[in-house]
């Protein structure tokens, strides 16, 4: 019976996860004509002049996004949980969730307007910050932050709801005991709620990291909208795409994909171990 | 996720097929050589008479397809619109690369807004033969080929073989608003030096008016190419020369720097809503390609300048030099070497590049096919829109400086990422010429060029 439940997932994971990954590893160590290439493909992509900037872009973006996501999502969830008026709480949950209902590409298209000081609702704010035109808003130095904000806007709401659910799972006796002991809301948050949320936060960080290292849709659309000022090889994944479909170098593309896989698995491992995600004993 | 029993059963064969595909892809053959070429210069697919042809065009060229189907109702044409590879998006190359990988599904005819596609389409990739069919070895008749304006097929020609037909020329001229010039009492400049002086005078006397635009990725093709800046020398199928620090490049950089910093050149893209909002009625002069007329001046969605005001002057020389000009795109038509109906595909490209029904009656740009160009000019002049005759375009057509070639990558994309942000943030280009050159060299090398 257990097999029947796991079976479909295993099949899908093999078809769309494991087999492509094995294929990528095989490609990464092969030459275009099929022979064994050793580390040639890796050397070629790492010495490419576009590789280090792309890594740097994604790294800065990840740091900004993960910090923003963790801090703000937890704070928002705690605030939401503290709201006791029913309709306010419901309205807020819907509001947080709404942006996430827009699929990736359409959310970015929406942001093309938001980032335009002449067209978007945030125009006065952007102008106050010294951005007069769309081209100025998306200057290279601002991009990591811009992408982090877009990702936060589209992705954070769902996590606020998830965290809210997790907070509801904390037994009321524990909370009550803390209150009777004289803890104020801040102390409850820091001493009771946060430690009990640790697994959830780690879970969020792992999934956000996996999505973040694959940054692709946002810079690709922004590249087209900015007629190339945002380069089409801004992120590591985009560079892999350029290798595959512009230079017809699928082996180089696979090498980048494998590097990306290794790095994100390593980083995920850190979160999983530090976050105690796989600990099975009851708290 | 929950799946029904039957869905699960279906997934097993699907995954087996995927494994099979993965293995098949592992064993892709090595690139084919031209030794197997057929009588017309390439290996032809088995022909199926009367089969429909698939045509990729950008939105503006749908009228070309309509004109063809109206005149040739017997040919079945399937149209697919895409971005035309505009602004260095390279989508033509990307899509073909994917189809090369798949080994099927190629379109029969493709329109590209760029000039740099023959450089890659003439070379096989991913184990497939070159995408572009050779046109000058039997497919397109010689007398038709010889009708194209001199030099216009250069971007299509690799090692003597012609791989595409040029749709339109995009030679730069000096567009100007004659009514405004008269009103302000200005005389047309005759050299780039006079142009600079006049620009600075405009900034002093009529601030808010502009005499040029430097906010698009094709800025180097308007200011650096006519200055004979050697940023894009293509000397062989995979060999380039790049020199971006020559005096010719420096004077062009100084010109743009002075213009943008002096406020008499805009740093906005001429296609941006901000440009239209800010400069409608305020463009005094604008050096730029032939298609500026239809795309910017005589376009309701853009500046929408009323009839009788816009004139065209011949390209400006630098003082003491022969006039030279640049070129901003000008579309190209490709026939696929994989086409199952080469006859219909060839008829299609012949028609859209030369027939009066399209090139004279409907085309927005200056036709590359010389007989059509003369009639097109006459038609434009008859329209009564222009304040001058359009002889400047005819003068400019053969003046395009031949030292700026079309490599397999987009020069516009390199400019957009390295130099455009400097213009936007008002930093001088002159100090960044070396960086620009290095970016071109880097891009050339990853595309397999040797740079001398």
TrEMBL record, chain B:
Q: Which SUPFAM superfamilies match?
A: Periplasmic binding protein-like II
Localization (cell): Cell envelope
List the signal peptide residues. 1-24
Q: Which residues form a coiled coil?
A: none
Keywords attached to this entry: Signal, Transport
Principal place of residence: other
Pfam families per UniProt: SBP_bac_1
InterPro entries in UniProt: Bact_solute-bd_prot1, SBP
Give the family from UniProt: Belongs to the bacterial solute-binding protein 1 family.
Q: State what protein this is by name.
A: Extracellular solute-binding protein
**What is the species of this protein?**
Pseudonocardia xinjiangensis
């Amino acid at each position: 019976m257990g097999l029947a439940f796991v079976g479909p997932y295993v099949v899908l994971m093999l078809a769309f996860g494991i087999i492509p990954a094995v294929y990528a590893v095989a490609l990464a160590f092969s030459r275009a004509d099929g022979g064994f290439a050793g580390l040639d493909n890796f050397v070629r992509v790492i010495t490419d002049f576009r590789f280090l900037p792309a890594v740097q872009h994604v790294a800065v973006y990840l740091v900004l996004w993960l910090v923003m996501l963790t801090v703000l999502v937890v704070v928002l969830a705690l605030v939401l949980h503290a709201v006791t008026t029913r309709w306010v709480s419901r309205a807020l949950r819907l509001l947080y969730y709404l942006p996430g209902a827009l699929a990736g590409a359409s959310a970015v298209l929406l942001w093309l307007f938001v980032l335009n000081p002449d067209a978007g609702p945030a125009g006065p704010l952007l102008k106050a910050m010294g951005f007069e035109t769309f081209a100025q808003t998306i200057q290279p130095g601002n991009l990591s932050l811009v992408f982090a904000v877009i990702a936060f806007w589209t992705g954070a709401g769902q996590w606020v709801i998830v965290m809210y659910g997790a907070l509801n799972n904390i037994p009321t006796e524990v909370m009550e005991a803390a209150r009777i002991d004289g803890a104020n809301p801040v102390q409850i948050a820091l001493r009771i709620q946060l430690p009990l949320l640790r697994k959830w936060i780690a879970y969020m960080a792992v999934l956000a990291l996996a999505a973040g290292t694959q940054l692709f849709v946002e810079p690709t659309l922004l590249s087209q909208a900015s007629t190339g000022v945002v380069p089409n090889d801004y992120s590591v994944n985009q560079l892999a795409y350029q290798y595959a479909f512009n230079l017809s170098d699928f082996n180089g593309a696979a090498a980048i994909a494998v590097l990306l896989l290794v790095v994100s698995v390593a980083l995920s491992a850190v979160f999983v171990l530090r976050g105690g995600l796989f600990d099975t004993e009851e708290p | 996720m929950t799946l029904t029993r039957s869905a699960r059963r279906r997934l097993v064969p699907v995954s087996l097929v995927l494994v099979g595909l993965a293995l098949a892809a592992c064993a892709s053959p090595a690139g084919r050589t031209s030794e197997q070429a057929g009588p017309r210069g390439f290996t032809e697919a088995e022909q199926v008479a009367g089969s429909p042809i698939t045509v990729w065009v950008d939105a503006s060229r749908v009228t070309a397809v309509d004109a063809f189907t109206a005149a040739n109702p017997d040919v079945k044409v399937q149209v697919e619109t895409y971005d035309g590879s505009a602004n260095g998006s390279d989508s033509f190359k990307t899509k073909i690369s994917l189809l090369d990988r798949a080994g099927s599904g190629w379109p029969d005819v493709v329109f590209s807004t760029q000039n740099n596609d023959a450089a890659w389409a003439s070379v096989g990739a991913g184990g497939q033969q070159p995408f572009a069919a050779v046109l000058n070895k039997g497919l397109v008749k010689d007398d038709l080929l010889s009708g194209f304006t001199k030099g216009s097929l250069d971007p299509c020609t690799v090692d003597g073989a012609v791989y595409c037909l040029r749709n339109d020329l995009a030679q730069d001229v000096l567009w100007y608003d004659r009514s405004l010039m008269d009103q302000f009492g200005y005389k047309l400049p005759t050299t780039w030096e006079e142009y600079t002086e006049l620009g600075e005078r405009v900034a002093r006397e009529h601030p808010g008016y502009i005499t040029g635009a430097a906010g698009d990725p094709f800025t180097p093709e308007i200011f650096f190419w006519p200055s004979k800046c050697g940023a894009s020398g293509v000397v062989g199928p995979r060999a380039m020369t790049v020199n971006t620090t020559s005096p010719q490049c420096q004077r062009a950089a100084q010109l743009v720097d002075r213009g943008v910093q002096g406020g008499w050149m805009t740093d906005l893209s001429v296609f941006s809503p901000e440009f239209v909002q800010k400069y409608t009625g305020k463009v005094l002069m604008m050096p730029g390609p032939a298609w500026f007329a239809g795309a910017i001046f005589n376009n309701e969605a853009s500046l929408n300048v009323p009839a009788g005001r816009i004139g065209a002057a011949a390209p400006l020389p630098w003082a003491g030099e022969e006039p030279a000009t640049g070129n901003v795109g000008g579309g190209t038509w490709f026939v696929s070497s994989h086409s199952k109906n080469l006859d219909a595909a060839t008829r299609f490209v012949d028609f859209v590049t030369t027939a009066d029904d399209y090139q004279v009656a409907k085309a927005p740009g200056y036709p590359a096919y010389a007989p059509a160009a003369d009639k097109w000019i006459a038609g434009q002049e008859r329209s009564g829109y222009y304040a001058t005759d359009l002889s400047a375009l005819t003068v400019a057509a053969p003046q395009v400086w031949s030292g700026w070639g079309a490599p397999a990558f987009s020069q516009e994309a390199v400019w957009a990422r390295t130099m455009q942000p400097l213009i936007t943030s008002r930093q001088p280009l002159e100090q960044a010429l070396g960086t620009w050159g290095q970016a071109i060299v880097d891009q050339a090398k990853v595309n397999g060029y040797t740079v001398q």
